[in-house]
Design a protein that fits this description.
single chain; 193 residues; alpha/beta; 5-stranded antiparallel sheet; 7 helices; 32% strand
Length: 193
């Protein structure tokens, strides 16, 4: 496991450009993950309904251009200072990106993070919050936190396969009528994938 982590830190994987790009990233430090000190800031991000990619902080330091695909960054690491981080944040913000730090998420609600991502111009799939969304590499998981109807806008037109019943269609929007606690899984493919 540590060998794979070391490889990712020094040689970050670049996702297939045809996969979904969320526009929002969240960073961790290995020490933080090992302590499992997730707490309220993580619940704030996850409960916002904003899909996000997860990277180790070291990935951005090793390959700063990795940040070019993002508009919003939740810096969940405990570190807030140091020349590497200051330079990274300055460069990211100079390109129009927005950063929010772990400490700044304390006391914030999922609605606050939803607004933060939306204002940064990141991909936000619904016009209101209430879903936990995990997506990437052709997979979409939607878990309902607040019941109701959601018009879930995909970042691109895709073939959408409902993994529970096998139904599929080409679309850029999924209409979801969900109850709290319900989870749905979909496979997404673009073009002739």
């Amino acid at each position: 496991e540590n060998v794979n982590l070391a490889r990712r830190v020094t040689e970050p994987e670049v996702p297939n450009p045809r996969t979904v790009q969320t526009g929002t990233a969240m960073t961790y430090r290995y020490e933080w993950v090992a302590k499992r000190d997730y707490g309220e800031p993580l619940r704030t991000v996850v409960g916002s309904g904003v899909p996000y990619d997860v990277w180790m902080a070291e990935d951005f330091f090793a390959n700063p251009s990795l940040a070019d695909r993002y508009k919003a960054l939740a810096w969940m690491c405990c570190i807030r200072k140091g020349p590497k981080l200051q330079k990274f944040v300055r460069d990211f913000e100079s390109k129009g990106g927005k950063v929010i730090f772990n400490a700044d998420l304390g006391g914030k609600t999922p609605a606050d993070f939803y607004r933060f991502a939306r204002e940064a111009g990141a991909y936000v799939p619904t016009d209101r919050m209430g879903l936990q969304v995990d997506m990437g590499n052709g997979f979409l998981s939607v878990h309902c936190l607040v019941p109701g109807r959601y018009d879930f806008k995909l970042p691109h037109r895709a073939k959408v396969v409902n993994l529970k019943n096998g139904s599929s269609r080409e679309t850029d929007m999924i209409v979801l009528d969900m109850v709290a606690g319900e989870t749905r899984w979909y496979a997404l493919s673009k073009g002739n994938e």
